[in-house]
Amino acid sequence: MKKYLIFTISTFFIFSCTDLDKELDGLLDKSGLTKQEIVTGQLVNAYSQLRSFQHQEFQYVLQQHPTDEMAGPTRGADWDDGGAWRALHLHQWNSSHPRISGAWDQILGGLFSAIDALNNEPNDEERAMATFYSSFYIFTATDLWGQVPNREIGTSYGDFPTVLKRTEAIDIAISQLEAVYDNLPSGSASNSVNKYVAATLLAKMYLNRAVYKATDEDGTPQTGPFAFDNADMQKVVDYCDTVLSGPFSLQANYFDAFAPNNTDIGTEIIFASENDNKTGGELARFYFMTLHYNNNPGGWNGFVALTDLYDKFDDSDPRIGGDYDGLTDVSGLKTGFLVGQQYDEAGNEIEDRAGQPLAFTKEFSLANSTEEKGMRVIKYMPDYANLNRPANDFVIFRLADVYLMKAEAMTRMGGDASGPLNVLRTARGVESVYTGATLDDILDERARELYWEGWRRQDQIRFSTFLDPVQEKPESTDRTKIIYPIPAKALSTNPNLTQNPGY
């Protein structure tokens, strides 16, 4: 318990510099922990910090609410929250937005743990694993804010951290991980860092590298189309092939990857944030945040799917959802999109709180919806063994994304990516296949396969569609919204940070 208390204290002073922060070196020195204990504990912390991706108030909503997939309508007094959810969908956030500030703390907390592990003389394998986490959190921060406070190995916690800019941070994240890649374990367990996990991250970083390089001198992000270098795209293909040669295969049932026992029955999960019924996690939020009060389980009646997403599916695509053993027979819920009249496990119609039929509609009002408005989504199924502490592991990387990244990279090099796309669609049981797939096809296929998984903002930015109008956001928005503002509290504690243009 002592080690985790120390790490909690140190993470609080993540990348600021205060009088207390200057005492942090001494605090850690006096902790009584060996360097090995610190390394071990900080690797645990870096992994545990991934649970913040399961929370609807941190980075997940920053990657989903401003896109063509998700929104959080206000329902009378419910879900108003000072307009925070509307601001995300309308691209009207500012540097004091609570979701942006919360995500900043979570991401940099993970980065601190990785750097502190590297600072305490890890062995080669531990160094490689800590470096993976460092690259992962640098990549995430670069994607969201275009700036990354970074402490050089060996520097004092009392010094102000330097700041990596968007164009250099991605190179550092890639180069440091490639330098230690050979020292990573060779296993394939989804709850630990290994070569397959690192290869997936490297593919994703190379795929997005051109986006971060396309930045004006003052830090303003460019909108594209981006200059994707063939050498980078070949790296994507190579790293994807490394993963595709591993012991993974696409699920026979798409929704098995999100079931309460997903990593036990799963065959395509490469990396996940582990949960169980004893220690919990935040994954219950994924069904509570969308389900109506009178569903089973009763939810918070919040987030909805956009018709922009739903209309990309045809009726023959199993990924749109349907009955699932252990779900539909227990509660009446279906997987995927919930639209129209809702039923209980016996087939009886469910009513809303006013006694009217509970029928979810495609339409909703961002500012003033009644409680039945908006389609709901069940991606992660409720764990009826423990609804508040579900055992579903949260998927970070899975094989389907690897097929899609390879297809995109092949297309950007001028090739025909129908092969990997059709492997995926055939495995999913989709009737139609591609001949001569386009980039637009790939973006839509990423939506159909990866919806509500936390990648959509990144994908839309890369395909230059992020600023376009969508349902309940009728206007195009300025390119400064491609990255988020640096939180006001972070600017006040680190003079090396500067506010992003437009904020």
TrEMBL record:
Classification via PROSITE patterns: PROKAR_LIPOPROTEIN (PS51257)
Q: Where in the cell is it found?
A: Cell outer membrane
User: Which keywords describe this protein according to UniProt?
Assistant: Cell outer membrane, Membrane, Signal
This protein's record includes keyword Membrane: yes
Which InterPro entries does the record associate with it? SusD_RagB_dom, TPR-like_helical_dom_sf
Domain RagB/SusD span(s) in chain numbering: 267-503
The record's Pfam families line, in alphabetical order, gives: SusD_RagB
Q: Which domain of life is it from?
A: Bacteria
- Name the family: Belongs to the SusD family.
Identification of the protein by name:
RagB/SusD family nutrient uptake outer membrane protein
